[in-house]
């Protein structure tokens, strides 16, 4: 057992340093479904198989073609004619023996027709290069089941990804520049007792210069309180005066020259951090006030159960504050003093987490769930990150695609920016809509009647004329009645045998200008 654990730690050493044992456990418990083993799809799975995802299932009813072999590393010439899901699964499993791979030789549409609940079992469903109608059907099924849905679409060197999930809760959000939880403005009993053990005025020089800066700030706060009616330094002037108070405490030599005490310099530097008021962040307050936190049921996810337990702690034992985080920053100090101070915070954090655990246990029993359904490790992690909790909610795919509910104003506001990614998004959506109507992409080779080719050639020549007004009036009148039918414009692209992404960008940008190009795509997107 020990050898297996050691081997696993060696195998996944780098990623364990990033997301820890609990992150790896979550990865190993995941079951991901990939729809369509395209080059993009198999690359996504590769990056999940290598770090040790629990299992994956590929759903694909297509046979491997020569074109597939030419652009997909996980398909070989010997697999031509075989089912694409099976062929890709066999090679992907070779990357990591810890991962279980499965495949289904069906199209997603058939599964949706016969057994839509098939998709409920997965932790995540990834749909690659699917028709718009399939995205909408599958998106509806997954939305109701609460299963995250990741849409991926690529065209040459451009593409997009869209995550669709009702609610995604984040415990470890890793915010930038997170402030330390030191509680110097509201010290807990154990911290007060520890600070009282230090007497800076009667210390030897070695001990004085190796006292943790947190202790230094705490001791001089006591002096400040005695002179300022127990009020913290609040504005810049007061904080600067407090810094001078600390600076005056630096030892001097026999010549009256201040000694080089780096711990005091650290204390002066960290005054703002140390005096940061202890309070519950607004984001965490919003989570406490959410309906999901208020009304816990037997179906509530553990995130909301623990959030309710932490809220009970804040309103009772915590006296309005979150559980102590239990960590302190690295600092100049001798090992003995640093470890003792670290243990003060760590022990308090463990005590607070134990109280939260009792609240959670009582809550679980009240809704008929066993106490062990939420682990002690999960509660400790939640308490440690209680100040950084996040809840992300997305719109459904149906809302995004519907004319009645899509974000028209937001899309319109992006049209004036030449750097906006909305331009590419509308282009890609337009191509999807074309495929939905014609069962092929604009660049697909097809034979056109001679009179159609002649007409399109003439129209293309008109675009080369210098008069910008004639070009815009031909294709992009602001009135619906005079705009050129979308399929004819896209057929023109096909006639010239140009890849859509290049043809769309160069033709529309150069011929009719940025804003008018957007008008065309906006029209196609809505119709």
From TrEMBL:
GO terms for biological process: protein neddylation. Belongs to the ubiquitin-activating E1 family. ULA1 subfamily. InterPro entries: APP-BP1, ThiF/MoeB/HesA, ThiF_NAD_FAD-bd, Ubiquitin-activating_enz. Pathway: Protein modification; protein neddylation. Residues 12-165 form the THIF-type NAD/FAD binding fold domain. One of its GO terms (cellular component) is cytoplasm. Regulatory subunit of the dimeric UBA3-NAE1 E1 enzyme. E1 activates NEDD8 by first adenylating its C-terminal glycine residue with ATP, thereafter linking this residue to the side chain of the catalytic cysteine, yielding a NEDD8-UBA3 thioester and free AMP. E1 finally transfers NEDD8 to the catalytic cysteine of UBE2M. Transmembrane segments: none annotated. SUPFAM superfamilies: Activating enzymes of the ubiquitin-like proteins (SSF69572). Keywords: Ubl conjugation pathway. This is NEDD8-activating enzyme E1 regulatory subunit. Gene3D superfamilies: NAD(P)-binding Rossmann-like Domain (3.40.50.720). GO terms for molecular function: NEDD8 activating enzyme activity.
């Amino acid at each position: 057992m020990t050898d297996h654990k050691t081997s696993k730690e060696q195998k996944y050493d780098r990623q364990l340093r990033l997301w820890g044992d609990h992150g790896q456990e979550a990865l190993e418990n995941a079951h991901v479904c990939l729809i369509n083993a395209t080059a993009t799809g198999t690359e996504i799975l590769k990056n999940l198989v290598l770090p040790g995802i629990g299992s994956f299932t590929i759903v694909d009813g297509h046979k491997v073609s020569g074109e597939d072999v030419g652009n997909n590393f996980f398909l070989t010439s010997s697999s031509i004619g075989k089912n694409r899901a099976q062929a890709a699964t066999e090679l992907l499993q070779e990357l990591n023996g810890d991962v279980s791979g499965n495949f289904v030789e069906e199209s997603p549409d058939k599964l949706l027709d016969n057994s839509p609940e098939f998709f409920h079992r997965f932790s995540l469903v990834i749909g690659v290069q699917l028709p718009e109608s399939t995205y909408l059907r599958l998106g509806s099924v997954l939305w109701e089941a609460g299963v995250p849905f990741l849409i991926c679409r690529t065209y040459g060197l451009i593409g997009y990804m869209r995550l669709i999930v009702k609610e995604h809760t984040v415990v470890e959000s890793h915010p930038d520049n997170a402030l330390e939880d030191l509680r110097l403005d509201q010290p807990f009993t154990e911290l007060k007792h520890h600070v009282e053990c230090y007497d800076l005025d009667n210390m030897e020089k070695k001990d004085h210069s190796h006292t943790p800066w947190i202790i230094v700030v705490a001791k001089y706060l006591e002096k400040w309180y005695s002179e300022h009616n127990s009020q913290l330094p609040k504005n810049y002037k007061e904080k600067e005066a407090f810094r001078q108070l600390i600076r005056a405490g630096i030892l001097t030599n026999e010549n009256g020259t201040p000694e080089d005490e780096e711990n005091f310099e650290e204390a002066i530097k960290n005054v703002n951090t140390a005096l940061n008021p202890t309070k519950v962040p607004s984001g965490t307050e919003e989570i406490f006030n959410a309906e999901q936190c208020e009304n816990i049921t037997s179906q509530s996810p553990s995130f909301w159960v623990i959030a309710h337990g932490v809220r009970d702690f804040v309103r009772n034992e915590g006296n309005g504050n979150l559980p102590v985080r239990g960590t302190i920053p690295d600092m100049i100090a001798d090992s003995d003093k640093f470890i003792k101070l670290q243990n003060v915070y760590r022990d308090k954090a463990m005590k607070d987490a134990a109280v939260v655990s009792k609240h959670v246990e009582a809550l679980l029993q009240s809704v008929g769930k066993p106490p062990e359904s939420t682990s002690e490790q999960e509660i400790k992690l939640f308490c440690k990150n209680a100040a950084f909790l996040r809840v992300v909610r997305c719109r459904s795919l149906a809302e995004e695609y519907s004319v009645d509910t899509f974000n028209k104003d937001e899309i319109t506001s992006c049209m004036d920016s030449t750097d906006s990614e909305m331009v590419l998004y509308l282009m890609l959506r337009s191509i999807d809509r074309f495929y939905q109507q014609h069962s092929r992409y604009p660049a697909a080779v097809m034979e056109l009647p001679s009179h159609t080719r002649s007409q399109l050639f003439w129209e293309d020549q008109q675009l080369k004329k210098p008069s910008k007004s004639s070009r815009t009036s031909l294709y992009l009148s602001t009135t619906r009645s005079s705009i050129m039918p979308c399929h004819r414009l896209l057929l023109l692209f096909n006639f010239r045998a140009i890849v859509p992404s290049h043809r769309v960008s160069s033709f529309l940008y150069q011929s009719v200008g940025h804003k008018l190009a957007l008008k065309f795509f906006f029209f196609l997107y809505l119709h």
